[in-house]
């Protein structure tokens, strides 16, 4: 006799996280997704912000080959501004230096290099 609490092994116990802007898609274990998403829901006011930060953390974990729960332990207890700064640091490590996040001063190329670039 089945129970509502019994796990159905015929179904896939993963969640697909995706970011349509960056074309990022990944299957992640459902239990890890629930842990990460519930943490961000406790920190942020909206479900959209929590979802975006959840996808971001899984993206950082996939690119840096660091387990997502290890990253979560490192950021737990931080305020919203500190959390944004920490995730920006990780994301900047994955991005091109010309497209860094949170940089107010635009990068100015060398004069001689810039004049050779045709728009």
Note down, in words, how this protein is organized:
The chain is mostly helical and 119 residues long. It has one domain. Helix content is 50%, strand content 10%. Strands 1-2 form a two-stranded antiparallel ribbon. α1 (30-43) packs across α2 (47-64) and α2 runs parallel beside α4. The mean pLDDT is 77.
In short:
The protein is mainly alpha-helical. It has five helices and two strands; from the N terminus they run ββααααα.
Biggest sheet architecture: 2 strands, antiparallel
Overall average residue pLDDT: 77
Please indicate the count of domains. Answer: 1
- What is the general shape? elongated
Helix content: 40-55%
Q: Evaluate the radius of gyration.
A: 19 Å
Strand line-up in the sheet with most strands: 1-2
Q: What percent of residues are in strands?
A: 5-15%
Helix/strand structural class: mainly alpha
Got a strand count?
Answer: 2
Query: Distance N terminus to C terminus?
Result: 70 Å
Uncertain segments are: none
Number of discrete helical segments: 5
Order of helices and strands: EEHHHHH
SSE topology sketch:
Elements: E1 14-19, E2 24-29, H1 30-43, H2 47-64, H3 68-75, H4 80-94, H5 111-114
Antiparallel strand pairs: 1-2
Helix pairs in contact: 1-2, 2-4
Task: Give structural attributes.
mainly alpha; 5 helices; 10% strand
């Amino acid at each position: 006799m089945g129970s509502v609490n019994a796990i159905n092994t015929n179904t896939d116990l993963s969640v697909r996280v995706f970011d349509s802007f960056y074309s990022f898609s990944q299957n992640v274990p459902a239990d890890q997704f629930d842990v990460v998403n519930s943490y961000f829901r406790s920190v942020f006011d909206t479900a959209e912000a929590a979802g975006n930060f959840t996808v971001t953390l899984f993206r950082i974990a996939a690119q840096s080959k660091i387990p997502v729960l290890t990253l979560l332990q490192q950021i737990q207890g931080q305020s919203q501004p500190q959390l944004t700064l920490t995730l920006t640091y990780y994301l900047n490590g994955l991005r091109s230096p010309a497209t860094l996040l949170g940089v107010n001063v635009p990068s100015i190329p060398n004069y001689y290099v810039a004049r050779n670039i045709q728009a």
